[in-house]
Amino acid sequence: MTKTARRTPRATLTAVDGVDAAAVLAGARRALGALPRGGISAWDASGVFQELAVAGDSAGAPSARTLLLLYAADLAFRLRWQIRPALAEGRSVVAAPYVETAVAFGRAAGLEPAWLANLFRFALRPNTRQFVHAPRTRALAVKDGFVGFSCGCISIDGGKNARRRLVERTAAELRRRDR
Amino acid sequence: MKSTPAALRRFARSRFTDATKPRGLLIAFEGPDGSGKTTQRKLFKTWLESEGYDVVTTKWNSSDLIKPLIKSRKAVRALSAEEFSLLHGADFRHRVEQVILPALWAGKVVVADRFLFTGLARDVARGLDLDWVLKLYQPLLWPDMVFYFSVTPLTSRKRVTATRVPSFYESGQDVTQVDDPVESYQRFIARVIREYESLALIFNMITVDAEQSIGEQHHLIRRLFLEGRQRPWSDWNAEAVAEWLANSPGSGR
Predict the structure, then answer these.
(1) What CA–CA distance (Å, rounded) separates B88 from B129?
(2) Tens-digit pLDDT profile for residues A108-140
């Protein structure tokens, strides 16, 4: 009798990033379709931003830095409860969004690359990175997902135009990072 | 007004080094639970006000925006060390931007009951890397003075447990895995104090022997404040102030 080694498909972490939450989710589903066993880890699994959304105006608008610290807290939660356990069980994970969306948002808001790199130092390196680039008009209309939510509530000098510019710069930064 | 970061740093520097205007002062009270710093902070605030200072107090984990998030997660013991650290970092940053910097810009005295050193001491005691945690708090805002209230782990434990049982995270049960909160507290606070002692040396804090009487400590703090209030503004703070100016509509630019 000959023994044949049975190969188990390797569990992988795929990161899908972009400003348009709906397009990112669609991209995540497509990526998941190509994987043998797996699931999607989405933004705000910890509910931090959901709770933030109901805070009164008197609490003060958060800055980009505060929003990124919260994004990192949510990502730490996703890694602990969704991503690492799934990978340990041999299941693949599509994280949508993952680190690149947050870093692009931070760069667009003028934060230092070194601070952003340190912030996400705890995150697992994905096996594959995918970017979903939305057309400009679509990106500017984004209201949900991390970028849409953040640009809607951020403390920023310059009002509505400054918020639109922030979305545009985030989208441009993601295109640059995809090169 | 659209300004470059360098122009904003210059503007911040000019505001805080203008000898013709009262400069805001940031005084931090640091130390483990049970070190009596809150008592001293209250006495100090009352005295400052009696001397004519406009005083603003800010406490650890107290922002209206982030505190509820932390509270609900602590209640169900849902925080890992990283999440604990990042959420407290977010709370701190929000208070810096919403409470501390506006008050300093207006020339007030800000008395902080715990500052970023609390985050550093507790997070490192939870096993996180000091360098990672310190960078979370960048751009750093250095207080004009930091009073560190020094007590032994035994004193801290006796004072805290005299009136209550320490909570899950306060006693470090998330990292000690000890079921008894008092025993866990004794172990955890020893680690926290070890980190505080190192930080007090590294960051040149003013150590107050918190085993002394309340009156002795208070008079020492008054004297040291009067001696030290004319210190030059720390240029390290230009970055934090410039970022706040850039993001804050109506910040006085």
Answers:
(1) 16
(2) 999 999 999 999 999 999 999 999 998 888 878
Output the CA–CA distances (angstroms, integers) from residue B188 to A46, B38, B123, B155, in the order listed.
27, 21, 11, 14
Identity (one letter) of the amino acid at B51? E
| DSSP secondary structure letter of residue B180 | S
Nearest Cα residue to A179 out of A104, A80, A94, A91 = A104
Q: Are strands B145-150 and B206-209 parallel, antiparallel or unpaired?
A: parallel
Q: Quick one: how many helices (H) and strands (E) in chain B?
A: 12, 5
Chain B residues whose beta carbon lies within 8 Å of the beta carbon of residue A106:
none
For chain B, list the strands marked E by DSSP. Answer: 25-30, 55-59, 109-113, 145-150, 206-209
Residues 32-91 on B with a CB inside 8 Å of A are 63-66, 68-69, 72, 80, 82-83, 86-87, 89-90
B149-173 pLDDT, tens digit per residue, is 999 999 999 999 999 999 999 999 9
In chain A, the domains with their CATH numbers are: 13-178 (3.40.50.300)
* CATH topology (fold) of B24-152+206-232: Rossmann fold (3.40.50)
Has the ipTM of the complex gone over 0.90?
yes
What are the residue ranges of helices labelled H in chain A? 21-33, 48-53, 64-78, 84-88, 99-108, 113-119, 136-140, 145-153, 159-178
In this predicted structure, the answer to whether residue A163 has a pLDDT above a threshold of 90 is no
- Between A56 and B181, the higher pLDDT residue: B181
Give the other-Cβ count within 10 Å of B108's Cβ. Answer: 18
For residue B78, give every residue at least 6 positions away whose Cβ sits within 8 Å of its Cβ, in sequence order, or none: none
Question: B87 vs A55: CB contact, 8 Å cut-off?
Answer: no
**pTM over the 0.90 mark:** yes
pLDDT class of A1 with cuts at 50, 70, 90: very low
**Domain ranges in chain B?**
24-152+206-232
